[in-house]
Design goal:
There is one protein chain. The protein is mainly α and 182 residues long. The protein has one domain. It has nine helices and two strands; from the N terminus they run αααββαααααα. Strand 1 and strand 2 form a beta hairpin. The two termini are 27 Å apart.
Length: 182
């Protein structure tokens, strides 16, 4: 995860659990990218790019010691439409391939609206996971609050962090991207 994401997440959340949640998110990012990439590919196949955002909420992530999984039973609970089942089949089809793929490939798949929204919800799950033993009611409130921040606010904060990194001398664009179009 970019070192610039930590400040973005901490600025967007007032939770007392946010710093530990940021560290948890950093450790979970490889497995989260697998989930988001498989969801994105399934959505692409079914020509419904925003469907993962309507299906997966922060409560649907299961956080383990060093990985995260999507709880498909929770995510599909009460849903009877055929499209949902086709989507889950596609997700399960792509997940092993995604897990075996290089990080660069997965990162190209995980972008845009879907990735931002799903990562936002994952961070909300991290806030809840970190805080629930200390104060479950507060952790729930903080997770719901972070999950409800508008996508444009998250995107604006990420953009601001990127601009801050540029002002500190980091590359404006990924070099491989510039080289590929130059």
């Amino acid at each position: 995860m970019s070192e610039n994401w930590g400040p973005v997440l901490s600025y967007q959340s007032g939770s007392e659990f946010k710093y530990d949640a940021i560290e948890l998110l950093k450790s979970m990012l490889p497995s989260a990218i697998n989930i988001i990439a498989a969801l994105s590919l399934a959505a692409r196949d079914l020509k419904s790019s925003s469907y993962p955002c309507s299906l997966v909420k922060w409560q649907h992530y299961n956080i383990g010691v060093d990985s995260i999984e999507l709880n498909l039973d929770k995510a599909t609970e009460g849903k009877q439409e055929r499209f949902c089942f086709e989507f889950i089949q596609k997700y399960e089809y792509y997940l092993p391939t995604v897990k075996a793929s290089e990080v660069e490939v997965k990162s190209r798949i995980c972008r845009g609206h879907t990735a931002i929204t799903l990562l936002q919800r994952l961070f909300a799950a991290c806030i809840f996971h970190i805080g629930r033993e200390q104060n479950e009611a507060l952790a729930l409130k903080d997770a719901n609050k972070f999950s409800s921040i508008s996508e444009s606010s998250i995107s604006n904060a990420l953009c601001q962090a990127w601009l801050g990194a540029i002002s500190k001398g980091y590359e404006n664009y990924p070099i491989h991207l510039v080289d590929s179009v130059a």
